TrEMBL record:
<feature type="DNA-binding region" description="H-T-H motif">
    <location>
        <begin position="46"/>
        <end position="65"/>
    </location>
</feature>
<dbReference type="InterPro" id="IPR009057">
    <property type="entry name" value="Homeodomain-like_sf"/>
</dbReference>
<dbReference type="Pfam" id="PF08362">
    <property type="entry name" value="TetR_C_3"/>
</dbReference>
<dbReference type="GO" id="GO:0045892">
    <property type="term" value="P:negative regulation of DNA-templated transcription"/>
</dbReference>
<dbReference type="InterPro" id="IPR050109">
    <property type="entry name" value="HTH-type_TetR-like_transc_reg"/>
</dbReference>
<dbReference type="InterPro" id="IPR013573">
    <property type="entry name" value="Tscrpt_reg_YcdC_C"/>
</dbReference>
<dbReference type="GO" id="GO:0003700">
    <property type="term" value="F:DNA-binding transcription factor activity"/>
</dbReference>
<keyword id="KW-0238">DNA-binding</keyword>
<dbReference type="InterPro" id="IPR036271">
    <property type="entry name" value="Tet_transcr_reg_TetR-rel_C_sf"/>
</dbReference>
<dbReference type="InterPro" id="IPR001647">
    <property type="entry name" value="HTH_TetR"/>
</dbReference>
<dbReference type="Pfam" id="PF00440">
    <property type="entry name" value="TetR_N"/>
</dbReference>
<feature type="domain" description="HTH tetR-type">
    <location>
        <begin position="23"/>
        <end position="83"/>
    </location>
</feature>
<feature type="region of interest" description="Disordered">
    <location>
        <begin position="1"/>
        <end position="20"/>
    </location>
</feature>
<dbReference type="GO" id="GO:0000976">
    <property type="term" value="F:transcription cis-regulatory region binding"/>
</dbReference>
<protein>
    <submittedName>
        <fullName>TetR/AcrR family transcriptional regulator</fullName>
    </submittedName>
</protein>
Length: 231
């Protein structure tokens, strides 16, 4: 009776190991870079500081990212990829507006809670007029925003929500949710704690959702007997 042979697993190639190490080092560099850019802005950040925090020499870091601008662009690319993936929730006009808005607000606050440094890097770039990333914002953020505004307008035309200025409603949602990352230090001071807690985000989500849904709620109608009917 022939004996069964155990399958021979292929050894990981040297090139595969090198790629894995490269990916790990890039992740380490980017994780430290987002903190430094968030703390110091583009002008104040230094490659030497980022390299030191990542446990590399400046020369080694520059093998992966030859210039500070290339590293900064990569950080913002990753920030925007993550943010847009979470934010792609509104452009579904057949869904119920209340459910969509709840999910959108929840996703925005979750990003602020999970990626505060990324949010601050993006905010600093925009506050400074987006000198190094304006084209990417125009190419990727603006079309998505316009698509979401079109969904609001479809909901308004269908009588699903009250007529609102959809552009400014989106600006308001962004401002309310992103402030929990960009101004979390100030909020923590007011709350007399070192940092915001999960319950702070939960309470913020509840309040912001209530405010937004109240803003878009259709007014109750009055029937022939004088009773108010829900929209």
């Amino acid at each position: 009776m022939a004996s069964e042979k155990s399958p021979v697993l292929p050894l990981k190639s040297a090139s595969g190991r090198r790629m894995q190490n490269r990916d790990r080092l890039e992740s380490d560099i980017l994780r430290q870079a987002v903190r430094v850019f968030a703390d110091s802005g583009y002008e104040g950040a230094s490659i030497a500081t980022i390299a030191e925090r990542a446990g590399l020499s400046k020369q080694n870091l520059m093998y992966y990212f030859p210039t500070k601008q290339q590293l900064y662009q990569r950080v913002l690319d990753d920030v925007l990829d993550d943010w847009l993936a979470r934010m792609d929730l509104l452009a579904h006009p057949d869904d119920e507006p209340r459910d969509v808005l709840r999910a959108y607000i929840s996703a925005k606050l979750r990003f602020s809670r999970e990626q505060p440094w990324a949010s601050r890097v993006y905010a600093l770039e925009v506050i400074n007029g987006a000198p190094l990333y304006g084209e990417q914002i125009r190419a990727r953020v603006v079309p998505l925003l316009r698509k979401d505004i079109a969904v609001f307008e479809q909901w308004i035309d269908a009588g699903k929500i009250a007529p609102v200025n959809a552009t400014h409603l989106m600006f308001t949602i962004w401002a309310m949710t992103q402030s929990y990352a960009d101004f979390s230090a100030q909020m923590a001071l007011v709350l007399e704690r070192k940092q915001l807690l999960r319950r702070d985000f939960d309470e913020a989500e509840q309040l912001i959702t209530q405010m937004v849904l109240a803003a878009v709620a259709m007014p109750a109608t009055v029937n022939s007997t004088g009773e108010k009917k829900p929209p």
